[in-house]
Every structure is written in C-alpha cells, then in structure tokens.
Amino acid sequence: MRPDSHASVVARPRRADAKAGLANGWSRVVAYVALTKPRIIELLLVTTLPTMLLAEGGFPPVSLMATTLVGGTAAAGASNALNSYLDRDIDGVMHRTRRRPLVTGEISPRAGLVFGLVLAVASVVWFAVLVNPLATALTALAIVMYVVGYTMVLKRRTPQNIVWGGAAGCMPVLIGWSAVTGSLTWAPFALFAVVFFWTPPHYWPLSMRFRSDYAAAGVPMLPVVAEDVPVAWQILAYAIAMVVASLALVPLAGMTWVYAVVAAVLGIWFLGLAVGVLQRARNPRPGRKLGEMLLFHGSITYLTLLFLAVAVDPILPM
After folding, report:
1. Per-residue b/e over 3-14, b at no fewer than 16 CB within 10 Å?
2. pLDDT over 90 at 12, yes or no
3. What are the tens digits of pLDDT across the range 251-278?
4. Where are the alpha helices (DSSP H) in the chain?
5. Which CATH superfamily is domain 35-182 in?
6. In the CATH hierarchy, which top-level class contains the domain 185-318?
7. Where are the domains of the chain?
C-alpha cells in the first residue's frame, strides 16, 4: 500500500460527513423558513409597500421601505411560527398541513416556540429603533391579535374565527402608512376594510375544499358547521362590502380615475367568481370544488392587482 493511501481512505469519510453535516444544516434552515409560512408573508408585503407609496404620494426613502418590509417580514414570521407551535396538534391531523416542520419533527416544539418568541421581540425592537412609536405599537398589536386573538381564542371556538381573527392580517396597511407618516387617516382604514372584507371570500372557499380536514381536526370553520348555500351567500356579501371599501378609497385618498377603473373592473370580476360559487352551491354538480379553488386563487390575484393599482396611482403624472 502506498504511504498516502491510508490518509485518502480516512479523508473520504470525513468529506462525506462534512457534506452530510452541511446538508443537514441547510435542511434545518429550510425548516425554520417554512415555519414562518413565507407564502402568507408574501401577501402581507403585497399590501404594505403600495400603502407606503400612497402615504408618501410617491416613493418613500428606500431605507424606510426596506426597514419596514424587513421588520414586517420578521413580525409576520414570528406570528406564523407561534401559530404553528400552538396548532401543531391539529396540523398533524389535517392532510394539507402534515408536512409542517413541527409535525414532522424537523424542529422540536421548544425550538419552534423559542424561535417565534425571539423573532417577535426582535421585530418589535426593530420597529422601535428604526421606524417610529406608532408603527411599533401596531406591529406588537398585530402579533398579539394573531397569536392570542385568532389562534388561542377564536380559531377553535367560533365559526367566525377567520372573520375577526383575520383582522390581524389587515394590520400591515396601518403599519405601512404609519411608518411613512407617523399617524393614521381614513385612507389606511379604507385599505384595512378592503383586506378585512377580502379575508372570508379568500379563506372560506379553501375551507369548503378541505372541509373534512377541518372537521377531523375539530376546527369549526363556517363551511364545516353550515351548508354550502348559506356560506356562499356570506362569501358574496363580504365580496360586495370589499368592493365598496375599495371604491371608498377614491374620495378618501384622492385616487385618480385609473385606480377607480381598475378597482371597479377587478371588483366586477371578483363578484362574478363569488356568484359562481353560489350557483354551484345551489346546483351541485361535478367540478364544484374546482369553482371554490378558482375563487381562492382568484382572490390572491385580485388583491395583488388592486394593491398594484394603489402603488401606481400616486406616481402617475397629474
């Protein structure tokens, strides 16, 4: 045997161990990111940045936008991580949530709790140091509303859980506005109302699709405890209120005809999707679930395009 052959044999397992350690470390990072539910955070950021542009009447300082978005991401991630910790028992029952890190064991419950708490404190301190007191207070309130109000109090107790608990998801517009102005006016509350009334038509179709999951987990989502037709009527009622709130922004924030047209066209389209769910509920037939998911995905498109119009409108030439 050559003198260096033994060293090479020893080196190969070491390299393999190093690669395995690197892979495990990366897998752990991915698991912690998944714990924050990035896809939900995306929707929150979609509402925050346009609101900041509207509040400024143009582009706020880049540093302020970046600071607010980073802090908002941390706050939302903290809320979602703590929600995952508190809901890990029902997540293990539901098919669509069985792969979450606290269910699979990739992250221990203790580690998930510590991660969520540290992220929550860090996000509030971040706003306190780098933004302003009002934005800080609203950020702390949003975390408490979601973790305590929705997850701990409402979710397992009332069919209206997503209605009132969903108010926490409306807070980013108030945070974004206050980050720019240090105050609040009626305009951000109109945007708050848009997201508030949007939440049931967004979430209830998903609950209709996964009704058996929620029933098995003992979560009394409205589609679990009520028939499809009453649920569909409520979806339509909230959709109408949402469209009214979106148009109320025109006089409250001095929006141009561009935003008004976009809001009206998107509103008519969204109402059409909601009416489609009602028609399918009244006349069940194959493919009904497809209609529910069409509204669910359509609601994301609606919110994204509406807030894109909110962002563009202030920078249009007068």
Report:
1. eeeeeeeeeeee
2. no
3. 999 999 999 999 999 999 999 999 999 9
4. 5-35, 38-56, 62-86, 88-91, 101-104, 109-130, 133-144, 161-165, 171-181, 186-209, 211-217, 222-225, 228-253, 257-282, 288-312
5. UbiA prenyltransferase (1.10.357.140)
6. mainly alpha
7. 35-182, 185-318
